Amino acid sequence: MVQTAVDVAVIGAGLAGAATAATLAARGRSVTVLEQFRAGHRHGSSHGSARIVRRAYGDPLYLALTGPALELWRDLEDRSGARLLRMLGAIDFGPGRDVPVIAEHLAAARVAHEVLDAAEAERRWPGMVFDGPVLFHPQAGTLDADEAVTAMLRLAEIDGATVRSGAAVRTVRADGDAATVVLADGEALSAGRVVVAAGAWLQPLLGDTVPLPPLRVTEQHVFHFPRQDPAAPPWPSVIHALTHPVYHLAGGRDGGPADDRKIGEHDLGTLTTAASRSGRADPESRRRVVDYVRRWLPGLEPTPRSETTCLYTSTPTEDFLLDSVGPVVVCSPCSGHGAKFAPLVGEWVADEIDGRDRVPARFRLAAHRGARTSAGVSL
């Protein structure tokens, strides 16, 4: 068996893995990134031109983390020269969204925001229908995930990291103070530390060796609807908390030249695995979203022009999972709301490897043991 020695191996080149590699390489670490497909692939959770970034959260911990994460995104834009953020603001409303409490959290964090009644919101954003109260804050918008992964991996390589595409990992095992990573072609890497940022592939890789909480993998169905007036300014990103939350945002490149609106249901994905996902949008989800557009978004054509899927990998609490087990770092900042925190996650993982404990206690393995199902922290 061919064996190669590396300092840090990072498994997975999605947002979390790319951010980890860029941060470690910038700190002078020798890093090898192992990606089973190719960087920027569309089989997992880190692709697409539009993900929501925002400050508003119903949970004060996540709200507090959005500030440093946003600063790190802006720093990444400066260092890479890439345009990653599109700051259009964000709207939160609906019976399942406690607008007064979120407004209190934003006020405590000194984040600018407004609470409007439904009529005022409809005057400000014609083409949308609201039931009030409606919260708006400007420090929000969209993130270009594709460009972010590209920028972070490029910076990592400039700082000496090696990014290997087509390097599927078969097993990860701890060997005392180091770890062995065996690839599908039989090659083995001996690594001082291994960061497993494999998204929906995390459980199959580590489930037999690390006491993971249950991880629920769902295939999420996303639809792009044409705007009736493509020349009109794009709307802010929106979270509308009905019985099941619906989100929508400016689609960017994925929305085509007319910037079609991207719409999805937050927690109504189809149960699946990384290996068995269909890659096809669910007809029932399409029907529900079309009905939603007819009722709440008269400024859109009610027929989607395109559709796609992606994967959520969620813990029962929707909290992130980030911890060390010997030389292995488990990194699953997912649960459908992790993209906005990627560069901060990279900092946490690098600190973990450098012996500095910055990971919030709620994200450690011990906190997940016996934790109850979430009431919706990701909103």
| Strand/helix succession | EHEEHEEHEHEEHEEEEHEEEEEHEEEHH
CATH fold descriptor of the largest domain: FAD/NAD(P)-binding domain
Characterize the overall form.
Answer: globular
Rg, Cα atoms, Å: 20 Å
Strand content: 25-35%
Can you tell me the number of structural domains?
2
Terminal-residue CA separation: 48 Å
Low-confidence stretches: none
**Helical proportion?**
25-40%
| CATH level 4 superfamily of the largest domain | FAD/NAD(P)-binding domain
DSSP summary, beta strand count: 20
Strand count, sense and barrel status of the largest sheet are: 9 strands, mixed
Tell me the structural class: alpha+beta
CATH class category name of the largest domain: Alpha Beta
CATH architecture of the largest domain: 3-Layer(bba) Sandwich
Enumerate how many helices there are, as a single number: 9
What would the average pLDDT be, to the nearest integer? 94
Structure overview:
The protein is of the alpha+beta class and 379 residues long. Strands 5, 6, 7, 13, 14, 15, 16, 17 and 18 form a 9-stranded mixed β-sheet that branches. Strands 1, 2, 9, 10, 11, 12, 19 and 20 form an 8-stranded mixed β-sheet that branches. Strands 3-8-4 form a 3-stranded antiparallel β-sheet. Helix 1 links the parallel strand 1 and strand 2. The chain contains 9 helices and 20 strands. It has 2 domains: 162 residues, FAD/NAD(P)-binding domain, CATH 3.50.50.60; 155 residues, D-Amino Acid Oxidase, subunit A, domain 2 (D-Amino Acid Oxidase, Chain A, domain 2). Helix 2 packs across helix 5.
